[in-house]
Write a sequence for this structure.
C-alpha cells in the first residue's frame, strides 16, 4: 500500500477515535512509519477528530529530529521508541480513554492481566479466551526521554505485545499497519471496559 493511502487510513482512524471521545481536548497522538528512517506523527495541539494529512509531521526515528521544525506531539519519543523496538510496527495509536486511564490506576501491579474473554482473539497471535493477555503498566512521567528509557529496559527483559498503559494517562498500542493498530485499539478498549465493569460488580 502506498504511503499516501496509509496516511489517509490513519486520518480516517483519527476521525473515528475522535468520534468515540477517545482523544478528548486535543489529547492523544497517532503515527505511521515512513520507511526505515522516518515516521509521520500528528502535530501537537490538534483536535484528532478533525485532522487532515497536512497535520502530520515527519520525524526521524533514530533521533526524534523534525526536519521541518514544526512541533510534533509531546509523546514523540514513545512513538519512535516503538518503531525502533519493533521493526514490523507500521502504525502507533495513543489514546486517553476513561477505561484505560481508570484501570491503569486501579491496577497496582506492573501489568493488567486479561483472561476469559472471547474478544482477546482480536489481538494478533491470540487464539483462545483461555490464554492470559498481559498489558504492561508504566508509571507516568512528564520526562518522555526518561519514560522511554524505562520502557526500553522493560522490553529488553519481557515481551511487549499490542500495547502498554501509562498510569493515569492512557493506552499506547500499535500494529503492522493502521488497520491492525485500529483493531488492537478497539479490542483492548472493549476488554478494558469489560474488566472495569467486572471489578465494579464484584466489589458490590
Amino acid at each position: 500500500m502506498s504511503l499516501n493511502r496509509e496516511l489517509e487510513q490513519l486520518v480516517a482512524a483519527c476521525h473515528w477515535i475522535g468520534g468515540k471521545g477517545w482523544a478528548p481536548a486535543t489529547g492523544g497522538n497517532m503515527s505511521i512509519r515512513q520507511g526505515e528512517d522516518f515516521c509521520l506523527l500528528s502535530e501537537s495541539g490538534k483536535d484528532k477528530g478533525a485532522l487532515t494529512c497536512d497535520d502530520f509531521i515527519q520525524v526521524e526515528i533514530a533521533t526524534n529530529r523534525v526536519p521541518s521544525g514544526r512541533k510534533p506531539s509531546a509523546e514523540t519519543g514513545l512513538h519512535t521508541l516503538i518503531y525502533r523496538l519493533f521493526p514490523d510496527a507500521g502504525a502507533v495509536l495513543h489514546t486517553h480513554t476513561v477505561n484505560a486511564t481508570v484501570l491503569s490506576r486501579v491496577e497496582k501491579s506492573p501489568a493488567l492481566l486479561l483472561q476469559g474473554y472471547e474478544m482477546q482473539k482480536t489481538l494478533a497471535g491470540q487464539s483462545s479466551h483461555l490464554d492470559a493477555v498481559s498489558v504492561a503498566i508504566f508509571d507516568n512521567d512528564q520526562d518522555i526521554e526518561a519514560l522511554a528509557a524505562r520502557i526500553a529496559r522493560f522490553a529488553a527483559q519481557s515481551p511487549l505485545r499490542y500495547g502498554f498503559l501509562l498510569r493515569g494517562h492512557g493506552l499506547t498500542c500499535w500494529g503492522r499497519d493502521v488497520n491492525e493498530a485500529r483493531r488492537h485499539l478497539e479490542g483492548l478498549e472493549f476488554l478494558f471496559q469489560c474488566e472495569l465493569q467486572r471489578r465494579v460488580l464484584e466489589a458490590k
